[in-house]
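#struct-pred
JK: can someone run the complex with arginine? inputs below
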Amino acid sequence: MRAKRVVLAYSGGVDTSVCIPYLRHEWGAQAVVALSIDLGQKEDMEQVRLKALNSGASEAHVYNGQDVFVSDYIWPALAANAMYEGQYPLATALARPLIARLLVEVAEATGADAVAHGCTGKGNDQVRFDVSIKALNPTLKVLAPAREWGMSREETIAYGERYGIASPVKKKSPYSIDFNLYGRSIECGILEDPWAEPPEEIYGMTCAPADCPAEPAYVTVGFTCGLPTALDGVALTPVALIEQLNVLAGAHGIGRIDMVENRLVGIKSREIYECPAAVVLIAAHRALEAMTLPREVTHYKQQHVEPTYAQLIYNGLWYSPLRTAMDGFIAPTQASVTGEVRLRLLRGQCTVVGRRAPQSLYDDHLATYSATDSFDHRAAEGFIYVWGLPTKVWSEVHRR
Ligand code: ARG
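RT: done, C-alpha cells with the ligand placed:
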C-alpha cells in the first residue's frame, strides 16, 4: 500500500480517470478524492465531477480557481513580463503551482496522506507538481501513477474499461492540449515535426490572421500600479478583463506562438501556444513601464529579473525563496506603473500605438526638437568627453 487516502488532480481525461482505479486496486488506496479545478478551460465541470465518481472516486470536488489564478499567479507573472525563452507566456506552467496548492489544502482538510497527478515522466508539469507539493507540505506523499504504469494508450483504455471507464467516444485527437484562461498549449501529432507548418485545426482561441478583419481594432488597457484594471476605460474584474481580451485579440489573430523550447528534463520540444490576452497585456505592460520606470530600473529588470523569473516559473520553482526575493524587487517598481496603453490589433499583429501615465517620466521639454526645448545642448560636450575617454585612450594605445 502506497497511501491510504489520496487527493487526485482530476481533469476528466482518460489518464486521470484511469488513475482512480489504479490507485485503489494496484496501489491499495482506500479512498481517492478527485479534485477538479476550473481555470477557465470552458468545460462542464459538473460533468467532470460526475465522471470522477463514475470512475470510482469516493468523493469528487470542483473548485473555481479562476480569481486566485489571476490574482496570485498571472498578475505576478505579468508584473515580471514573464515569457519563457522570450516567447511563451507560461499559461500551463503558472497553473501547476495553483493546482498543487489546492491539492495540498484539500489533502490537509480531509486527512489524506498523499496527493496524486496524472503526469507522465517526460514533461515539465510533473516537476512543477512534485516540487510545489513538497514545498507546501513536505510530509505528503506525491503519487504519479502514469509515470510508473508503463501502459500504452490502448492498454490504458483497456484497463479503464475493466473498471467501467468508457473509452473516449470520438477518435482521440492526436494532439495533447492544455487550456486555461491565460492560454492554450498544443503538442504532439504532426507538430512533432518541427518543419511541418501547424494545421489550422489545432487552433481554438485565435482566428487565422489571413481570415481576420482587414480593418484594425483598437483597445486601451488601463493599469493601476502595474495591474490591468480596465479596457477602453471600463473597469473590469481581472477574470472578465482577460476573457474579453482573449475574445477581442483572438478575433484579430493575435497570440499564436510556434517555438521549439528547452524543457527542464533536457528534451527540446516543438510547442504551439495561443495566448491572445497574454500577448496584448505583456506588450501593454512593457510600454507603460517604458514611460514610468527610470532607465536603470528598466534595464536591470529586463536583463536580470525578467528572464530569471520566467525560468523559475517554467522550472517549477514558484514556491521558492528566489521568487519571494524577486517579488520583493518587482513590487516597488510597479508603484508608478499606472496609466493607459492603446494598442492596434490587426491580422496577427499587436502594436502599441499610444501610452500615457500620470507619473510619466517622459518630459516633452527635454524630448522635443522644437522651440520649447529645455535640454542644455552645451552640457553634452563635457559629458561626451568623459564618456568616450576610455575608448579614446584605448584607441591611442592600439592604433597602428
Ligand atoms: N511545454 C509547455 C510547458 O511546459 C506546455 C505543456 C503542456 N502540458 C500538457 N499537459 N499538455 O509549460
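RT: quick notes.
The pocket of arginine is lined by residues 92-93, 124-125, 176, 178, 185, 187, 271 (CB under 6 Å).
The first helix runs from residue 14 to 26.
JK: thanks, will look after standup
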